């Protein structure tokens, strides 16, 4: 497996692979890889001629009071997982290589950037779309694999690719969960025992919403209230938002008719967790909404 710290070297390698007619599969990550990332790596390796991942903790997407410095880092075990999954190369750029100068150019997806995550993380998605745009320019034409776990992020990236004509096929992959429903996340490492138990409140709230919709509830507000109440019953959790939205535009819905996405964010002590689900399927069931 190629481990590339140098961006020029990475570009030359990938250009050469494409020149040979190889189709590229790309998985961008911030490292601290878990089985959610593993599912993306596996899919990229299985469906591409040449698979490449990136590991870069992107300062641009962290707010001033967020966990950039403490964000978990585990390069050696990450590379071992990539090797395990038969990834052909991992790009591990330094911050200086990615941002030799303070950025004057940002990529912002309007509208989709407002509400939900953007309320408490106003600059987050500009950081994400900007770094993903840079990585797409580095990697070139490819299929790129993203998790539904970060649903708003996936929607933003799809829109950016379409608006800016990136030669990239974006592939959304289902959320991988612990047996008790908790979505895998690098930030789960921050949770102690009682907090870890409390963290299942996100998936429990989603399930409560899904069951209401299955029972015929068509009012988004009623479903949001039940999701919020589930979180309020958990003493260690503090709700950020519980939302019922259109899966494609993430707009609010007047009524729950057909396709619907449930999204939730809550803080367990200082750890902020997010989750989401197709409102028409129980958790873990396959959905093709994205
Ligand atoms: P991150 O390292 O957090 O930036 O995540 C890298 C990619 O892994 C993103 O596309 C995430 O959506 C995806 N991902 C993170 N957690 C999960 C999960 N539990 N299941 C599936 N994909 C995930």
Quick rundown:
The chain has 290 residues and is α/β, with parallel strands linked by helices. It has helices at 7-19, 35-47, 75-84, 95-98, 117-120, 124-139, 151-163, 193-198, 201-214, 220-232, and strands at 2-4, 24-29, 50-55, 89-91, 142-147, 168-173, 237-245, 261-268, 271-278.
Task: Give a description of the structure.
The protein is an alpha/beta fold and 290 residues long. The chain is 37% helix and 19% strand. It has 10 helices and 9 strands. It has helices at 7-19, 35-47, 75-84, 95-98, 117-120, 124-139, 151-163, 193-198, 201-214, 220-232, and strands at 2-4, 24-29, 50-55, 89-91, 142-147, 168-173, 237-245, 261-268, 271-278. Strands 1-4-3-2-5-6 form a 6-stranded parallel sheet, sandwiched between helices. It has a 3-stranded antiparallel sheet with strand order 7-8-9. Strand 3, helix 3 and strand 4 form a beta-alpha-beta unit. Helix 9 runs antiparallel to helix 10 (220-232). The longest helix has 16 residues, at 124-139. The protein starts with a strand and ends in a 12-residue tail after the last strand. 40% of the residues are buried. Residues 29-30, 36-37, 39-40, 146-147, 149-150, 173, 175-176, 183-186 line the site of adenosine monophosphate.
């Amino acid at each position: 497996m190629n481990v590339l710290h140098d961006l020029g070297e990475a570009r030359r390698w990938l250009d050469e692979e494409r020149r040979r007619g190889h189709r590229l599969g790309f998985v961008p990550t911030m490292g601290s890889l878990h089985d959610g990332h593993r599912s993306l790596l596996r899919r990229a390796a299985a469906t591409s001629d040449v698979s490449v991942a990136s590991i870069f903790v992107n300062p641009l997407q962290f707010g001033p009071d967020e966990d950039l410095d403490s964000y978990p880092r585990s390069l050696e075990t990450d590379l071992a997982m990539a090797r395990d999954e038969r990834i052909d190369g991992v790009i591990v750029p330094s911050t200086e290589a990615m941002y030799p100068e303070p950025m004057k150019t940002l990529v912002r997806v309007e509208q989709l950037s407002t509400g939900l995550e953007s309320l408490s993380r106003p600059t987050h998605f500009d950081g994400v779309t900007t770094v993903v745009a840079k990585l797409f320019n580095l990697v070139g034409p490819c299929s790129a694999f993203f998790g539904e776990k970060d649903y708003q992020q996936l929607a933003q990236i799809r829109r950016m690719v379409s608006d800016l004509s990136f030669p990239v096929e974006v592939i959304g992959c289902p959320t991988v969960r612990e047996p008790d429903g908790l979505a895998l996340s690098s930030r789960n490492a921050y949770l102690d025992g009682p907090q870890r138990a409390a963290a299942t409140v996100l998936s429990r709230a989603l399930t409560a919403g899904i069951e209401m919709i299955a029972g015929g509830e068509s009012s988004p507000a009623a479903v949001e209230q039940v999701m919020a109440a589930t979180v309020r019953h958990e003493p260690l959790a503090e709700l950020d938002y519980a939302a019922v939205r259109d899966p494609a535009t993430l707009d609010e819905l007047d009524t729950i008719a057909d396709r619907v996405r449930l999204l939730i964010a809550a803080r367990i002590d200082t750890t902020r967790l997010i989750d989401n689900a197709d409102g028409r399927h129980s958790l873990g069931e396959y959905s093709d909404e994205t």
